[in-house]
Design goal:
Blueprint: H1 31-52, E1 74-81, H2 83-96, H3 100-116, E2 120-127, E3 144-151, H4 157-173, H5 179-186, E4 201-206, E5 234-240, E6 245-252, H6 258-277, H7 292-297, H8 314-324, E7 329-332, E8 337-339, H9 340-355, E9 364-368, H10 373-384, E10 388-392, H11 398-405, E11 412-416, E12 430-434, H12 435-440, E13 461-467, E14 475-480, H13 481-488, E15 502-505, H14 513-522, E16 527-530, H15 533-536, H16 539-549, E17 553-556, H17 558-567, E18 577-580, H18 587-596, E19 600-605, E20 615-618, E21 633-634, E22 638-643, E23 656-662, E24 668-669, E25 679-684, E26 687-700, E27 707-712, E28 716-719, E29 722-725, H19 726-734, E30 742-747, E31 755-760, H20 768-773, E32 782-786
Parallel strand pairs: 4-5, 7-16, 9-10, 9-11, 11-12, 15-16, 17-18, 18-19, 31-32
Antiparallel strand pairs: 1-6, 2-3, 5-6, 7-8, 13-14, 14-24, 19-20, 20-21, 22-23, 23-26, 25-26, 26-27, 28-29, 30-31
Helix pairs in contact: 1-5, 3-4, 3-6, 9-10, 13-14
């Protein structure tokens, strides 16, 4: 607008054209420029095709489900970088000869990395696109969006800024290709109205030095507030003023809450400050403390300690139940049942038989048996003899059984359950005895000079379970009596069960869930119902057993929950409590199960090394899940913390490794050399404690600090609740002479169960047994393919 009567002159434009989103669209009226564009366009487009091939847009975890169509509805949170931090930014830029944009983009990408763990991601930035003199005096909108693909691996903050500078320099050198053309080339034929293509997060640093009011002679200017809109998930705008940066973050209100954006900006500020203070700090271990006070205030750094019988052993507490409920049914299977008095008497008899053999305390006794009364008798008898049991599933291949038994030192004793065919094992010093034969054997007096203690303590070894190992050899996990008791007595897990619970025994005895299934009822005067394999896999038969036996509690893997919900959902109406453990719980299944179970449904998370469970989360009525079902908070007498690679606590919202502590921790691995990287000491709120690194990626949910689980940080997977190392499967396949090379991947389509696919250079006679032998009960989830590898 002209406010004076002074004459005005206008420069003749060398380029004419309509206003558009890209200067390239204005050039066709100029033959010379059109020829120039055509010359450079192909080369620049080729650059973008190579640069963005296989790339992923930077995304953040949302607060609401992503809608099918983003409408642009948005809000904004203001943000300021005050003088002190701004001066540090300017000093860094001067020393390293960088622009503030480069450093701020590096800090924004570092923030995204810490919040998501994404190593490779694209962030967008707008450019003025006035890089030609012909455009200097033209009025029009020529802004173009650039994709900055930035990887974060072991980078320091300084290293990341250098990487961003190189990326930005290359991007600006190829800025003439319109963003829309890049999209149409890379995403030809695809259209997703739920998100902006290629870029969902955008950072813009504007160079205005004076953000004051516009000065017009003879007139007053007033700012007019405009409604905020954005076609991106998030737009972060910063304006350079004389002594600070100010601006704000516009965000889609269809996706985010304002508190989440405020938290994001706080992490960004601390990331920038830490990076400028110590540029050699690795991004992955940059200590972020803003928010740790919230964890402390809400009690998430303290263990919920309860008065459980920590000085008692499993045998001690079982004896108490025998005295209180001698005639109550303790355990039953499809053909037999035992009262507490009968189970006590039979397990005493088996213990006496074992003590006659004068085995050293805590020696391992293998049990190869199905779920049945004899198996439970064997477990208790072994514990009463101050020995520890080593369970084997009857469906596990002989090769795996032999591999595990070969690691034992000294005599190898294997108890066989009813109708179990003795496996053909090529091992020395091996004795197989049927449980029934040992019970029928008359017991003599125990020699008085025996060195074997006759009674276990709370810290006595109870059992050993072998899990998948990345070296090709299974890892034996040693669990003590106290670890079991802390879970089933006076805990936030035990307290949700009714008195004298009737619990279904559905899991394999080699699966750690079986420890909860067995001891939750037997140490609380309840009844354990052993369900055989055919019944467990038949939804209608299982529902019948649930009704007949009045089962009130069960712990199931998500795959079985999904199957039962589809086939016989009525079975869940009979339960008071349902725990779901062993893998990620599908959100819709959680909602459906909660609507059926008359008591509570709990998403449960744990690992063998922490005795079944580490955390639990109660599913709320009509609850909706955006980032999967949370795994909640630590079980009683245990701790669960999110830490960075240097075992420093991270605040809410920041991705890290889940580390667990407390009374449930295993003694360690049977091979002590394996303890080093997993069982460690950490500092929690000023105190050093023993901990286990789970290798799982997780975060504290910003709004309530509940823990959310996001999968493995390595190549370990879970199939039907069993941990499988892909490297172990590869190792088994590579052990065949006819296999030159092999690779195993995990794949999942839609709601299908996770499965393994093995690729190999030459086909061995039959790979399926090898895949079966690599892990318990997982071979059915495996496929083998001959690859086309050369070399």
């Amino acid at each position: 607008m002209m406010t004076t009567s002074y004459p005005m002159s206008f420069t003749t434009l060398s380029l004419m054209g309509g206003l558009s989103t890209s200067c390239a669209r204005s050039w066709p009226s100029s033959t010379r420029l059109l020829d120039e564009v055509n010359t450079h366009s192909s080369a620049q487009l080729e650059y973008w095709k190579q640069e963005l091939e296989g790339s992923s847009p930077a995304e953040l975890l949302t607060d609401r489900p992503r809608p099918k169509v983003l409408t642009g509805e948005a809000s904004a949170v203001p943000f300021t970088i005050e003088a002190e931090l701004y001066q540090s930014l300017q000093a860094f830029c001067k020393t390293h000869q960088m622009t503030p944009f480069v450093v701020l983009l590096a800090a924004f990408r570092a923030t995204h990395y810490r919040l998501t763990g994404a190593e490779d991601a694209c962030i967008g930035t707008p450019i003025a696109n006035r890089n030609r003199p012909e455009l200097e005096n033209m009025i029009g909108f020529f802004v173009n969006t650039q994709c900055m693909r930035i990887t974060v691996e072991d980078d320091t903050f300084e290293g990341l800024t250098q990487k961003v500078r190189s990326t930005a320099t290359a991007a600006f050198a190829n800025q003439d290709v319109p963003f829309e053309r890049i999209v149409s080339t890379l995403l030809a034929g695809s259209r997703d109205t739920s998100r902006n293509p290629l870029v969902q997060l955008l950072l813009a640093v504007h160079s205005q030095k004076d953000m004051g009011r516009i000065q017009l002679e003879g007139m007053q200017a007033e700012p007019i507030g405009l409604s905020v809109t954005t076609r991106f998930d998030i737009e972060f705008h910063l304006f350079q003023e004389s002594d600070r940066l100010s601006g704000g973050m516009a965000f889609s209100t269809q996706l985010f809450e304002a508190d989440t954006i405020t938290h994001l900006l706080a992490v960004f500020r601390e990331t920038l400050r830490r990076g400028l203070e110590d540029p050699q700090t690795p991004i992955a271990t940059m200590q972020l403390t803003d928010g740790l006070g919230e964890l402390r205030t809400k009690g998430h750094l303290q263990i919920d300690r309860t008065e459980y019988p920590r000085e008692s052993s499993v045998v001690d507490i079982f004896r108490e139940q025998v005295a209180a409920f001698p005639d109550a049914i303790a355990v039953k299977d499809s053909s037999s049942q035992l009262t507490y008095a009968e189970l006590d008497r039979q397990s005493d008899q088996l213990a006496a038989w074992l003590q006659q053999r004068r085995l050293p305390a805590e020696s391992l006794v293998a049990v190869l048996s199905p779920r049945c009364c004899q198996t439970i008798t064997a477990f208790l008898g072994i514990l009463k003899a101050n020995l520890a049991y080593l369970p084997f599933d009857v469906n596990v291949p002989t090769a795996r059984t032999e591999a595990i038994l070969s690691t034992l030192v000294g005599p190898r004793l294997v108890f066989l359950g009813p109708d179990v065919c003795p496996p053909a094992l090529e091992l020395s010093d091996l004795e197989m005895v049927r449980i029934g034969d040992a019970l029928a054997h008359p017991c003599q007096d125990i020699p008085s000079d025996t060195n074997t203690p006759l009674w276990p303590s709370a810290t006595s070894l109870a059992y050993v379970l072998f899990t998948s190992g990345s070296t090709g050899k299974p890892k034996g996990v040693m669990i003590e009596s106290q670890a079991i008791i802390r879970l089933v007595k006076q805990s936030n897990v035990a307290n949700v069960l009714p008195p004298a619970p009737c619990v279904a025994h559905l899991s394999s005895i080699t699966f750690d869930i079986s420890a909860w299934e067995i001891y939750a009822p037997l140490l609380n005067g309840g009844t354990l119902v052993c369900i055989d394999y055919p019944t467990a896999l038949n939804s209608e038969a299982l529902a019948f057993v649930f009704a007949r036996e009045r089962i009130c509690a069960a712990m199931l893997p998500p795959a079985l929950v999904k199957q039962y919900l589809a086939d016989t959902p009525g079975a869940f109406r009979l339960l008071d409590v349902l725990f779901v453990a062993g893998d990620r719980f599908d959100s819709q299944d959680a909602i459906d199960a909660q609507a059926l179970v008359k008591g509570g449904v709990y998403n449960s998370y744990g690992q063998t090394e922490n005795s079944v469970l580490s955390t639990i989360y109660k599913i709320l009525e009509n609850e909706q899940f955006v980032n999967g079902v949370p795994i909640g908070h630590a079980v009683s007498n245990s701790g669960a913390y999110i830490m960075d690679p240097r075992q420093q606590l991270v605040p809410p919202g920041v991705m890290g490794e889940l580390v667990v502590t407390g009374d449930g921790l295993a003694r360690g691995y049977t091979d002590p050399a394996l303890d080093k990287d997993r069982f460690i000491d950490v500092i929690i709120d000023g105190q050093e404690v023993r901990a286990y690194r789970t290798g799982d990626r997780a975060r504290y949910r910003p709004k309530d600090c509940q823990i959310e689980f996001f999968g493995r940080m390595d190549r370990q997977i879970k199939i039907r609740g069993h941990r499988i190392e892909l490297a172990e499967v590869e190792h088994a396949i590579l052990g065949q002479e006819s296999v030159r090379d092999a690779a195993v991947v995990a794949t999942k389509q839609d709601d299908e169960e996770l499965e393994m696919i093995a690729f190999h250079a030459k086909p061995p006679p039959d790979l399926a047994p090898l895949v079966h032998g690599a892990g318990p009960d997982c071979g059915a989830g495996a496929t083998t393919c001959q690859s086309q590898w050369e070399g």
